[in-house]
Fold this sequence. Notes:
Layout: H1 8-11, E1 17-22, E2 27-30, H2 32-38, H3 42-45, H4 50-53, H5 60-69, E3 73-83, E4 86-99, E5 102-112, H6 113-160, H7 164-188, E6 197-199, H8 201-215, E7 220-225, E8 233-235, H9 237-255, E9 259-273, E10 276-288, H10 316-326, E11 330-336, E12 339-347
Parallel strand pairs: 7-9
Antiparallel strand pairs: 1-2, 1-5, 3-4, 4-5, 6-8, 9-10, 10-12, 11-12
Helix pairs in contact: 6-7, 8-9, 9-10
Amino acid sequence: MHLFENTDSLLDNLSTAILLFDSDLRLQSINTSGEDLLSTSKRTVCGQVIDRLFIDFPLIEAMKECLQSGQPFTERDVELRTSEDHAIIVDCAITPLVESTCTKGVVFECINVDRNRRITREEDIMARHQATSALIKGMAHEIKNPLGGLRGAAQLLERELENEDLKEYTGIIISEADRLRKLIDRILGPSDAQQLARVNIHEVLEHIRSLVEAETSDKIVLQRDYDPSLPDMLADRDQLVQALLNIVRNAAQSLRDEGSITLKTRAERQFTIGTHRHKLVIRVDIIDNGPGIPEELQETIFYPMVTGRAEGTGLGLSIAQTLIHRHQGFIDFESSPGHTVFSVWIPLERENI
Length: 353
């Protein structure tokens, strides 16, 4: 019987990446989480020796020692490199596979530290976003009532005035009250129920691309990097358009009339958003080569009313995060001068969470 027979179905249900090596350190099996970690497939890598899987792997000697001594070994913050441009930081454990006092191979377990840090960061961002939104929405509701009273009083006063010069002042009060009410409505965000239907993410992005191209300078280039194999997803098209358009417009405004924006799509398997693990999510990256987000704004960029532009309202990213969260998804970003990436993850199928 094959040493690793009948283990695949069990291992595929684990969130930890599991790689099973024989005594020659040749890969015999890898679970689904391992495929995701290494961005590869079982068919491609099974049968390869370990130094063909990883570049400059620091634990080969430890694995050989494990085979000889039969003693397990653990290590934290190990860098796995599967190619020159793909490095992962993991916590790992090496455990001997012993049969009849003879070590037949080793189990190599990996936990993606970067992934865990991302999940922690994501939960922190969402908790702060929800708390801040709840506070601001409560304030907005409290403001709307006296604002309506002020507007009504100004209208009554205007009817009583005969002097046209004085009516100009009441007109200002009414118009400013209307402007503040619209701003408050934007802060409160969408209240309509979602209209769910099958949506093609590339059709949504092409619509957004045409809108932004019509609004911006010819020196801003919008590029595509699409995965054509992505299936349609269950979503509210209008809400997706609004959320992604807010991000792309922000990117265009940061370029100051010259630069490039790339719209990139990919699929990711066994991806965790919050506390829920999804079998398949669609990832949309919006990448620009602008000056980047100021460091002092990066921790609060999704808060309502936070903006780096004098003319901005600071509501675009807050509304986008809310709309994507309504799709059980999440938005995060990485930013440095010359390279900013806003990543949007949306589950392919809706879950009853």
